[in-house]
Design goal:
Length: 515
DNA sequence: TTAGGGTTAG
């Protein structure tokens, strides 16, 4: 018998007929009704679960179909519970079940015991299935168990392209870009997803310029990009301020009539805002009809970045008028807008309202924004009080804000304590050592300044050179401190000299202190 | 008997 997808209009009739005639006892018929229901109503997973529960036969196919529906609706925990229910019911999982279950475990990190699935797969000898194999590698990679992922990969004689891609992605997610690149170069075949995984790896590891270069190479190889790739390109463009690249992506999407996913819409607005083109950010935002909370957050955060706090709050009101409830990211955008605009009173109100009115408990990031706001306003006592009442340990950004305040106020004693704390939190970050050494130097404590630099050297911490990027005609140029390898370095230095001289003539004095 | 993988922001 061939697979049947029942039309939406006939579903209730066919379902009742199947019950009356007793055909519902046929697992194939019951499975088809369940699948047809979920095709017609993709969000009807709870009804589908009820149908499964009342069905006389619980086939593996029915469970797999429902597992798939839960994952499509971003409900991995429900999928995991359904899998347990499946096992309790005595229904045998098959090669189609495990990729779904492994994905659910990857998406629900609170379930840390997913490794037992591997044992079940081995017992059933399903590890040779290419889908199961790639899913296992992905599962271990996402869980940070890259050694195990590699072991699974190496166990198969001829791993498929998905297995290669899953391992590549796993290395990138765990910060090992060189190994990811090695796999990308070595893999016997590449497809769009492999390119996408490598580009995404560069974006995740904060190497946006490499992501853009690889994207150019991908286009030269005549591989057509999809939404996933373009979202990553927009993120990379936003990171380095490559407005022309971002605009090119926007045009490409329109020219090819590509359907814009919510991620793409958000990334476009984010890109324009981060590249400083606020007008395009606002125009693009207005053009989109279905605005979800993420899109609103992108424009609120973007506007706030440029010190337009009041406009950010106006947008927040518009968002509420549109019936979109805020989430925790909305408040990060608003608090950050207050910080960039010096709106202390509004920031305090906003911080209070988020838990009292909107029932959103402040996370570390919200405290971080609030501390930043108070630090910039010079309200040190209030800032210290807030840090002391935080229900979690402060992060390096919070200590950094506190350190800046101490430095500005010339409070060397407190600055010393905070600076040491920062080094303890981020021992590999050269900036922490340099800031403490500068603090000592600013108060004439030269020996201690030298001692901090010595500790840094002994620990093998390399001073990361300052770097700035600029995009000219679609090309991103990178400049490091002391680096004169740029082909137009001499001309650029001449212009900078003229500018520096003009500034001196106007009475400006060079400030070399680290902020 | 049908179905399942690897890539997607802040």
């Amino acid at each position: 018998m061939r697979r049947i997808i029942f039309p939406k209009s006939l579903l209730p009739l066919l379902h009742s007929r199947a019950i009356i005639s007793g055909q519902i006892h046929d697992p194939f018929v019951a499975g088809n009704i369940l699948e047809s229901l979920l095709r017609a109503y993709p969000s009807a997973h709870f009804q589908a679960h009820a149908l499964l529960s009342f069905s006389p036969h619980h086939s593996t196919f029915m469970y797999n179909t429902l597992l798939h529906a839960y994952l499509c609706n971003n409900l991995p925990t429900h999928a995991i519970l359904l899998f347990y229910e499946m096992l309790l019911h005595g229904t045998t999982p098959n090669n189609h079940t495990f990729p779904l279950v492994l994905k659910a475990f990857s998406q629900a990190p609170q379930y840390k015991n997913g490794a037992f699935i591997h044992t079940m797969i081995l017992k059933r000898r399903l590890d040779s299935d290419s889908y199961v194999h790639a899913s296992l590698i992905h599962f271990y990679g996402a869980a940070g168990c890259i050694v195990e992922a590699r072991r699974v990969f190496d166990e198969k004689q001829l791993p498929g392209i998905s297995a290669w891609t899953a391992l590549l992605s796993g290395y990138a997610k765990n910060g090992n870009l060189s190994m990811a690149w090695e796999l990308f170069v070595r893999m016997p075949d590449r497809n769009l997803v492999s390119w996408s995984a490598m580009i995404s790896g560069y974006v995740q590891c904060r190497k946006p310029e490499k992501a853009l270069a690889l994207f150019q190479e991908m286009m030269k190889s005549k591989v057509r990009p999809n939404c996933s790739v373009l979202v990553n390109v927009l993120v990379a463009a936003a990171e380095v301020g490559a407005l022309q690249v971002g605009k090119w992506v926007h045009m490409y999407l329109e020219k090819n009539c590509m359907c814009l996913s919510s991620n793409l819409k958000t990334s476009l607005v984010h890109m324009y805002a981060r590249c400083g083109d606020l007008l395009s950010a606002k125009q693009t935002f207005r053009r989109f009809r279905d605005k979800n909370v993420d899109l609103w957050n992108a424009i609120i955060t973007g506007i706030g970045l440029y010190g337009r706090g009041e406009e950010a709050f106006e947008l927040f009101v518009n968002m509420s008028d549109d019936g979109i409830p805020p989430d925790d990211m909305t408040f990060i955008g608003l608090l950050s807008a207050c910080s960039h605009s010096g709106m202390v009173a509004e920031g305090r109100k906003c911080f209070e309202a988020m838990s009292k009115i909107y029932r959103i408990e402040p996370k570390l990031e919200h405290y971080s924004c609030m501390v930043d706001l108070l630090a910039k306003a010079g309200l040190v006592n209030e800032m210290v009080q807030l840090i002391q009442t935080m229900p979690m340990e402060p992060n390096a950004r919070i200590w950094g804000s506190l350190f800046s305040s101490c430095r500005i106020l010339g409070d060397i004693t407190s600055g010393e304590i905070v600076g040491k704390q920062l080094i303890q939190l981020e021992p590999r970050n050269s900036g922490c050592y340099v800031q403490l050494a500068n603090l000592y130097a600013s108060s004439g404590r030269w020996q201690e300044a030298v001692a901090v630099r010595d500790i840094m050297k002994r620990r093998g911490v390399v001073l990361e050179p300052g770097c700035s990027l600029i995009e000219v005609d679609g090309m991103v140029h990178e400049f490091l401190v002391g680096d004169k390898t740029h082909p137009k370095a001499n001309e650029i230095c001449c212009v900078l000299d003229v500018m520096a001289r003009s500034l001196r003539v106007e009475g400006y004095v060079l400030n070399n202190s680290v902020s």
